[in-house]
Write a structure and sequence with these properties.
- It is a single chain.
- With 328 residues, the protein is α/β, with parallel strands linked by helices.
- It has 12 helices and 12 strands.
- Bound molecules: guanosine-5'-triphosphate (GTP) and magnesium ion.
- Guanosine-5'-triphosphate (GTP) binds next to helix 1, strand 6 and helix 7.
Length: 328
């Protein structure tokens, strides 16, 4: 599905390493027509444990995981809004994302210089926060000037209020809806990934983020190549997906076993649309079975005979970990 995550962080915090970790699908996906991604965009494959289990039974020649899209931008540094480093123009790429994932460094490595000299995740979070607030102020001021020539009172008022009150770690969700079209970064859900060791963070900081994750990205990349080493990556991916409010469902034919992500609360019609517009147009019904039951019975026809298959309509809501067969 087309879900974009903007990556944000200081230089050398591990953004590119994170992309490397997430973009290698260890599965056969050769003939699958993926959307060609734009420059600076990368696929984040989530080859879930559930998909692996399902494929063990279906044994199809192809197995296709779903993916999210990561948007990579250069590292942000202190003073970027005054033009330090590469400035902050590139933050506009983050505005295209559905959410932002901030990556901060909490690993020591003498060979990898820290732009601030010393590793201190809390300070880095504050630097990013201040730079983001400054960038937002610029956008708001620029748009306010234009708006003032119109009579869009409500929007003008909202912008003026934000400009007065905006400060680090403050979000103003009451204005999210009316200022939606400006794609402000402060109106997007933010997630935090601490790259390296776990650490405590003040609650004032934590509340700015929907979720906080700890992952040693370099270790995970190395562990991926060596079987049987403990890995947190799969667990992280799955949790992140659920925190993004995306649920997964599965389909399979004789050739392909496939995993799909969809927004929680979506209908079977929307799920059908995701697969093919034909499926949506000719939709008759959705036949569903929970993955858990399928893993037990191992046979769709048997499940049918036992009356385990449920019949769902266009407007019914898709559930997490379901196998769906669309009747058209
Ligand atoms: N020890 C350790 N090193 C890491 C970790 N993550 C990244 N590194 C190293 O840090 C260096 C910088 O990582 P990148 O992923 O290139 O950082 P970046 O955020 O993309 O940097 P910019 O593109 O400059 O903004 C690389 O040499 C990585 O190998 C980690 O978790 N532990
Ligand atoms: Mg990079």
């Amino acid at each position: 599905m087309n879900f974009k995550i903007g990556l944000c962080g200081l230089p050398n915090s591990g953004k590119s390493s994170f992309i490397k970790l997430t973009s290698e699908a260890d599965v056969l996906i050769a003939n699958y027509p993926f959307t060609t991604l734009k420059a600076g965009e990368y696929s984040f494959f989530i080859f879930s444990e559930e998909l692996k289990k399902l494929h063990q039974i279906t044994q199809t020649p192809e197995v296709i995981p779903d993916y999210l899209i990561l948007v990579d931008v250069p590292g942000l540094i202190r003073g970027a809004h005054r033009g330090e480093g590469l400035g902050n123009e590139f933050l506009s790429y983050l505005r295209k994302g559905n959410v932002v994932l901030e990556i901060v460094r909490n690993f020591e490595n003498k060979e990898v210089p820290h732009p601030e000299g010393k590793v201190d995740p809390l300070r880095d979070i504050l630097i990013i926060e201040e730079e983001i607030i400054q960038a937002e102020k610029e956008i708001l001021e620029r748009n306010l000037k234009v708006l003032k020539k119109t009579n869009q009172k409500e929007k003008i008022e909202a912008m003026e209020k934000i400009l007065i009150q905006l400060e680090p770690f403050k979000r103003m969700p009451e204005f999210d809806e009316i200022l939606k079209e400006y794609n402000l970064l402060i109106t997007k859900p933010w997630y935090l990934l601490v790259n390296g060791e776990e650490c405590d963070l003040p609650s004032e900081v934590l509340k700015t983020f929907q979720s906080v994750y700890f992952l040693d990205v370099k270790w995970e990349i190395e562990a991926k190549e060596i079987k049987d080493l403990p890995k947190k990556f799969n667990e992280f991916s799955n949790k992140f997906r659920l925190d993004l409010n995306l649920i997964q469902f599965f389909t399979f034919t004789k050739e392909i076993t496939q995993e799909w992500f969809i927004k929680r609360g979506s209908s079977y019609l929307e799920a059908a649309e995701l697969i093919h517009s034909d499926f949506a147009q000719k939709f008759k019904e959705a036949q569903t079975l929970s993955l858990e039951e399928f893993l037990e019975l191992k046979d769709w026809e048997l499940a049918k005979k036992l009356g385990k298959i449920k019949i769902k309509g266009k407007k019914d809501k898709v559930e997490e970990n379901e196998i769906i067969w669309f009747k058209i």
